[in-house]
Records
---
Amino acid sequence: MVEGGAQIIDSFARSGLVDRLIITVAPVFVGSAGVGYSIDPASLARLSFRASEAMGIDHVISFQPK
């Protein structure tokens, strides 16, 4: 298990070391401008959508290898 933000997710996805990706989206702003993320779609091309679930105000989305 690896926990991290956009750079960590993108780095592991590009390396091909991801066997399952679970992203939790929480409506929380950190700092004056908040924290965004950008992941290269090409690095996620080998993954397919698995599930999406609302957990309170958070949203959990999971992917697994195709």
---
Amino acid sequence: MKRRRLMLTVGALLAALAAAGCVQETNTAGGGTTPAGNAPGGNAPSTAAVPIKTKGADEELTIALVPKGTTHQFWQTVKAGAEAAGKEVNAKILFNGPSKENSVPEQMEIVRNYAAQGVDGVAVAATDKEALVAPVNELQGKGIPVVVVDSGIEPDPSHSFIATDNVAAARLAAEEMGRLLGGKGKVAVLNFKKGSGTSDEREQGFMEGIQKFPGIQVVVQEYTESDVGMAVDKTQSLLTAHPDLNGLFASNEPNVIGAAKVLDDKGLGGKVKLVGFDAADAEIEGLKKGTVHALIVQDPFRMGYEGVKALAQLVRGQGTPEKRIDTGAKVITKANMNTPEMQKILYPLGKK
């Protein structure tokens, strides 16, 4: 009787421990053990890789490119690079992005729509480095490979990140600003969006680089949501607050265009040193005119081109692309802009 009671008590204790997740279940198939909470059918997410849906060399691919926006010249150049690669690898390129570069939910919906359509691969430039992780995981959970171009995600589960090293490129901007100001003066910074990988990295790089010049003081940082109108407003406000400003770092195309307009309107073009990113036609005109003193110019054509090539490589089963591809950046000034090397970078599609 006592033995029967002891067995019942031990059985009850073991059942309670199993319910609390303190007992390991044996994985008979693999010969090992799996914690009960992580057993098949448990609550923990699966980390098993989903095989990529491959296609033969003669089959046409459908590849989607989802930029942060569609209006700025930078994104149109990324598109041109993607289309050039598409012709080489027999791929149709779908191009769709949010109406504004701060429209994170809109971009997430576009990515999820492409997942539902069952495209062969997706290249995306993330509007928000954290919010886009889930849609990317959803795509790859369907066997659709993803590469990230220009603006990254954290953590990054994609197959390849193809972009400028924005921290290093922004350090170049800081060095150029230091040179232009002779190592002393007051500087303002126009960033575009907190939480965007590109914006955060350029902010980091510039602030790190400018520390080499103890005589330069960064008096204010502003964010413009990549909107020219907001860049105009922010530039006007910071000039009112700091009329003795010596330099302005504008970290992307709309910021440069907005800042240059204000400087010209106030008769400060050429006096306040303006260093920026990208090479839209309006920025190049500002460089020629002297309102813009230097541009850190990326290679958006290569971003689109390498993105499509990498996806085609994956879908064709032809190997794995490099996890990180640095597309490079150059400092272009009025002094060097007419050299053959810089002309090719400024006009990747040729002059109009």
---
Amino acid sequence: MLLGLHTYSLHLHGMGQNWGGHKLAWERVWDIYGLMDEAKKLGLEGLHITAADLGSTESSHLKAVRSAAEERGLYLEYNFSLDASAYDDRLTNTMEEGIAIAEKIGSDIGKVSMDVRRPHPVCGSAFHPEVIPQLERIAQLALAAAPAAQNAGVRLCLENHTEAFSDEVLWVIQRVNHPFVGACVDTNNSLMVGEDPLTAIRKLVPVAYTNHFSDHRIEFDQYGCRITGVAAGSGDVPMVQAYRFIRSNPDMRRLNLEVEFDPGSDGPEAARRREYAAVVESIRFAREVLKVGLE
């Protein structure tokens, strides 16, 4: 199993994407080449990247990125969204565009955020009447793009993003029924729709080709609770069991750490220092506790 990093793990450094209505005002720390160098310093084998990390999707640039990754011995996976207009439109691609970008950077993965618009109340709303037509549309898009994905050697991986139940992701994949359309299993996203993480992981792992290995902690206060990102192994997602499920699928040969760190009221220097420390701790957990790369 190779160990990589979802670049949102360094979002306070300007990588990955903007999310949750927040636009980072701080200057980004690295370009894509500096980011790859940093990955090597951290002892990683790959990166799960977005168009925001790439900086440009011009063909010549994408080919240069591919060459740089190959020179450094890093795998790249490409992460895009069908409609990221609500949080960071830099990530929006059609499936065909995502496949083409993935192929040019040497990625065999095109991770797709479905960007379902879900009504409230969210809990218990799987296959809501307002959601079913969206799922059908996504299935038709994936079905139309599947031959191009196969020709390019790029597997389209639909994620249980923060707005999708695992059964809905499975429904789309089964509807398409193509070997180059599967899942990206995120280990904590199911919490956002009130679904048990291990249940979602168990369902999605058999049809998954990639993953976001992410931990969250549930914190209580006088106003209720919040679900917040933490270093892997320090939250409330059973990460050891999650990894066992992921390892059970021979089609997943990489583990992509994702840290969604909350800086609180820290300024840039302190926030980035703490975020980086959470990434380092997640790598330590993967190497020393889970024995990733040492099996």
